[in-house]
């Protein structure tokens, strides 16, 4: 079946705030923090995560959210070996796994429906039917060649800084969401672009077409994994599938998938780092965090605005750069903080660019080619980004434009 643009645009899903923790072994770069420094920020994050555990947040999904039924390949990731099926009622490390077809909720009960199955709440090691265990429809990417092109490092401790003075790489995690289109309007009006780290099946997302627009308007899309799990809590197979499943979804929608990723909660230890290198991913962190996810109330978002303003005072386009992180799933970030950031970028003489551009990485290295491809038309945006858009178009124009795959486009997450 074929899906109209109106229908694609109408299907949306829910996402909740995601705290960003830090691996204790990560290098401490020149990060702009709050007044108390990185230790205080880590304490604040630890306190936040105590109320909102990374792997299994307690907040149930809104049962009234306008989500379509999930349409997947029908293939389910097997549970880790050695985990026995329990009594079919309780689940988790103490009780074992649920029966096939059931999910294991954050509080450790077997069942079905969004309250049990939404990721990352659902415990994927104990709930066979968890959203995070559902493979999307589309060709398998696990056998794809993954050459390591360019000079930007793959895997390892990750990337924290831009290399080009005067560049600000604004990035957003966890979307797309209902605010993302309006944010794209703001970027277009300012002649600016960003990088969007996209999750595929987190909190039961529906399918939307913001991904097309991001690419068409010169933005960069990158992976934030399939279902926003703590990667250090997963087996090798589970962690690989978090990347493969998102690749399948990207490929079915766009005809290609990213080589840049950001680990959920900014957690990716040594085993994860090595695996991301093997899979051909640039692990992307940040050196400027305005902490909007901690200040989502209208009375609090000014804290994040002040953090941005402090960063603008700390450096100039002549002597520095920033790799910034925020989240496009919160109204105050989308409608208050982002316009302030964009106005400030222009007023202070910075250039808002993609992560790939701020690292000096050619656009052809940002993605791996899938088949069939999709040919984007250059849209009316700032002349500053016409060359980048042309590079996008030329990179994908050679691919066979075969829309027969549109029957596969009913993927949770896009």
From TrEMBL:
InterPro entries: Chitin-bd_1 (IPR001002), Chitin-binding_1_CS (IPR018371), Endochitinase-like_sf (IPR036861), Glyco_hydro/deAcase_b/a-brl (IPR011330), NODB_dom (IPR002509). Keywords: Carbohydrate metabolism, Chitin-binding, Cobalt, Disulfide bond, Hydrolase, Metal-binding, Signal. Pfam families: Polysacc_deac_1 (PF01522). SUPFAM superfamilies: Glycoside hydrolase/deacetylase (SSF88713), Plant lectins/antimicrobial peptides (SSF57016). PROSITE patterns: CHIT_BIND_I_1, CHIT_BIND_I_2, NODB. The keyword Metal-binding applies. Its cofactor is Co(2+). It comes from the Eukaryota. Disulfide bonds join 98-110, 103-117. Residues 166-353 form the NodB homology domain. Residues 51-79 are annotated as: Disordered. Residues 70-79 have a biased composition (Polar residues). Residues 88-132 form the Chitin-binding type-1 domain. GO terms for molecular function: chitin binding; hydrolase activity, acting on carbon-nitrogen (but not peptide) bonds; metal ion binding. Residues 1-19 form the signal peptide. The keyword Metal-binding applies. GO terms for biological process: carbohydrate metabolic process. This is Chitin binding protein.
């Amino acid at each position: 079946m074929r899906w109209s643009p109106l229908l694609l645009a109408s299907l949306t899903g829910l996402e909740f705030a995601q705290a960003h923790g830090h691996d204790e072994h990560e290098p401490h770069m020149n990060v702009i923090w709050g007044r108390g420094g990185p230790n205080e920020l880590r304490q604040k994050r630890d306190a936040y995560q105590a109320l909102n555990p990374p792997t299994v947040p307690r907040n149930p999904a809104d049962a009234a959210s306008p989500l379509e039924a999930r349409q997947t390949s029908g293939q389910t990731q097997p549970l880790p070996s050695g985990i026995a099926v329990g009594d079919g009622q309780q689940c988790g490390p103490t009780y074992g796994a649920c029966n096939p077809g059931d999910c294991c909720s954050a509080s450790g009960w077997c069942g079905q429906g969004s309250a049990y199955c939404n990721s990352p709440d659902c415990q994927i090691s104990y709930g066979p039917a968890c959203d995070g265990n559902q493979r999307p429809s589309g060709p398998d990417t696990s056998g794809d060649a993954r050459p390591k092109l360019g000079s930007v490092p793959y895997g390892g401790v990750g990337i924290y800084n831009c290399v080009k003075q005067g560049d600000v790489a604004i990035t957003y995690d966890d979307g797309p969401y209902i605010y993302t289109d309006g944010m794209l309007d703001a970027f277009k009006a300012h002649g600016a672009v960003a990088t969007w780290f996209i999750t595929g099946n987190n909190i039961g997302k529906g399918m939307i077409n913001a991904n097309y627009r991001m690419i068409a308007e010169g933005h960069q899309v990158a992976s934030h994994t399939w279902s926003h799990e703590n990667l250090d809590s997963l087996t090798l197979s589970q962690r690989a599938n978090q990347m493969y499943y998102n690749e399948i979804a990207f490929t079915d929608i766009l005809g290609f998938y990213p080589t840049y990723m950001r680990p959920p909660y900014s957690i990716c230890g040594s085993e994860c780092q090595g695996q991301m290198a093997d899979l051909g991913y640039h692990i992307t962190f940040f050196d400027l965090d305005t902490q909007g996810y901690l200040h989502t109330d209208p009375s609090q978002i000014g804290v994040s605005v002040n953090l941005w303003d402090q960063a603008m005072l700390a450096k100039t386009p002549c002597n520095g750069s920033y790799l910034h992180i925020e989240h496009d799933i919160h109204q105050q970030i989308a409608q208050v903080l982002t316009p302030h950031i964009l106005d400030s970028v222009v007023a202070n003489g910075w250039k808002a660019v993609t992560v790939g551009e701020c690292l000096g990485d050619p656009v052809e290295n940002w993605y791996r080619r899938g088949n069939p491809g999709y040919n984007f038309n250059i849209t009316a945006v700032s002349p500053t980004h016409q060359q980048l858009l042309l590079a996008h178009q030329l990179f994908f124009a050679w691919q066979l434009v075969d829309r027969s795959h549109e029957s596969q486009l009913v993927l949770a997450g896009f």
